[in-house]
Amino acid sequence: MRRSPSRASAPTAVERVRSILAAAHSMTVVCDGRHTEVRRLDGSGAMGHFHLHAPFEGTGAAADAGAGTAKGGRVPVRLELTDIAPTPVRDRLRARVTLTGLLAEPYDPASTESTCMEFGQGVIEDASGRSYVTLRELEATEPDPLATSEAGMLTHLVDEHAELVPLLLRLVRPVPDGGVLRALPAGVDRYGLTLRLEYRRTHRDVRLPFKTPVRHIDHVGPQIHALLSEARRLSHTGRLLT
User: Fold this and answer.
1) pLDDT value for 43
2) Distances (CA, A) of 144 to 15, 54, 90, 222
3) d(Cα 221, Cα 206) in Å, to the nearest integer?
4) Domain 150-233 CATH (choose: 3.40.50.300, 3.30.450.150, 3.40.1160.10, 3.20.180.10)
5) What's the pTM value of the predicted model, to 2 decimals?
6) Tens-digit pLDDT profile for residues 37-52
7) Distance from the CA of 217 to the CA of which of 156, 224, 233, 239 falls in 20 to 30 A?
């Protein structure tokens, strides 16, 4: 059963993919035997560089030729993106996203126009496993309102308000034991904040959900302040950081 948006405490797979595509600063394009690193996406994300469409609905040779040229006329392409935590946590790789599809002709890295890509499959892989997303799901999903600002918000929290991070540990249930060496924010999205607790030999992520999902970036400040206020009200039980 699909989760009710009002009760969600973490992004769905398609929400994560859509947000990663929107916030990406770089990606690898694999086409016609060549790996091309695209490092400047001009703030438009991956979908500002590639236009996804359903089979045979685009313009140009791929659409005009129809199914009869699927084996000979179109060129397979693969887009590879990585989602990296913006803070210096252990194991910064959060997810890998791969989109596969077809182009009317080999990818031209020098082109200044958006490349039309016939969508085949979308996959996201993270610590919890592998999930598949469809083009229809991507088209029906908006990027997380915090996606393009997440890095700035988290680095500001770590660099300018580091003393607040241990305070947030009071919200973690069950209460962490004294083996926690360090806690850092590893992510923030419309549903809440993710803390990474680092131990001597391992680490784990915990979610601190917001009371209500954030609908606009201007609303995240009050939600984080609400978490901090709740943490201050709780009794500090035991030594959380060594």
Assistant:
1) 63
2) 7, 23, 24, 17
3) 20
4) 3.20.180.10
5) 0.85
6) 998 776 677 888 899 9
7) 233
